[in-house]
């Protein structure tokens, strides 16, 4: 009986928190977005370099996934836009404690742009559809955001950078080996962890005029 009461209290609390988040003033939402941008910068410093690619393995994509879940539609993406914009402006919170425009023009610049769209994508679907808050739906969203959106933008920029700095046009397979395939195991782990956390914290009933609230 006590465990049931605890669970009921938790379910009510998470619904109240997300409803509160959706009703915040813009200034408060902006403050939360800055906090999430800072978390992205912190996790960007957890990195592992591979000998055959200029693209490191980092922890920041986990923050990108959670930005969409925690801040929802629009503001998850805004948090990553803040991260990228302030990083370009000089705050050294890109991978390797770097900042400045060179990071955007370099081999990993496309991934940074992908962060914005990945967070927007996740935030849109988790906010708008209750059915997207199941673990199966969440793991699909996370993997799609990482593999298709982030890697998609990343590979385009990586190909351009390789062509202009190395004087060669890499094949699709070469690009995948440099900028995608080595990162898929870590991508899957981060997606699994993010989806597990998201399933536990996202309300299973409407809190902000969801499209399928009555279904």
Question: How would you sum up this structure, described in words?
Answer:
This protein is 69% helix and 2% strand. It is an all-alpha fold. The chain has one domain (10-201): Arp2/3 complex 21 kDa subunit ARPC3, CATH 1.10.1760. Helix 7 runs antiparallel to helix 9 (184-201). The two termini are 30 Å apart.
* SSE pattern: HHEEHHHHHHH
Number of domains: 1
Strand content: under 5%
- CA-to-CA gap between the ends? 30 Å
The pLDDT mean sits at 92
- The CATH top-level class label: Mainly Alpha
Return Rg in Å.
18 Å
State the share of residues found in helices, binned by percent. Answer: 55-70%
Per the CATH scheme, the topology name is Arp2/3 complex 21 kDa subunit ARPC3
Strand order of the largest sheet: 1-2
Write the topology of this structure.
Layout: H1 2-22, H2 26-43, E1 47-48, E2 57-58, H3 60-71, H4 75-89, H5 101-105, H6 109-128, H7 135-166, H8 172-179, H9 184-201
Antiparallel strand pairs: 1-2
């Amino acid at each position: 009986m006590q465990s049931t009461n605890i669970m009921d209290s938790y379910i009510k609390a998470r619904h109240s928190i997300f409803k509160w988040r959706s009703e915040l003033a813009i200034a408060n939402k902006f403050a939360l977005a800055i906090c999430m941008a800072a978390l992205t910068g912190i996790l960007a410093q957890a990195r592992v370099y591979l000998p055959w690619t200029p693209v490191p393995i980092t922890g920041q994509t986990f923050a990108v996934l959670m930005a969409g879940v925690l801040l929802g539609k629009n503001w998850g993406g805004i948090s990553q836009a803040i991260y990228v914009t302030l990083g370009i402006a000089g705050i050294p919170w890109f991978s390797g404690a770097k900042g400045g425009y060179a990071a955007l023009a370099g081999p990993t610049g496309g991934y940074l742009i992908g962060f914005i769209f990945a967070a927007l994508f996740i935030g849109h679907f988790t906010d708008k559809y209750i059915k997207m808050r199941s673990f199966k739906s969440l793991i699909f969203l996370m993997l799609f955001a990482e593999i298709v959106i982030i890697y998609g933008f990343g590979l385009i920029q990586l190909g351009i950078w390789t062509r202009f700095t190395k004087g060669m046009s890499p094949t699709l397979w070469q690009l995948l080996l440099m900028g995608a395939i080595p990162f898929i195991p870590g991508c899957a782990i981060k997606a699994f962890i993010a989806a597990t956390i998201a399933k536990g914290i996202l309300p299973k009933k409407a809190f902000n005029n969801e499209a399928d609230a009555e279904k």
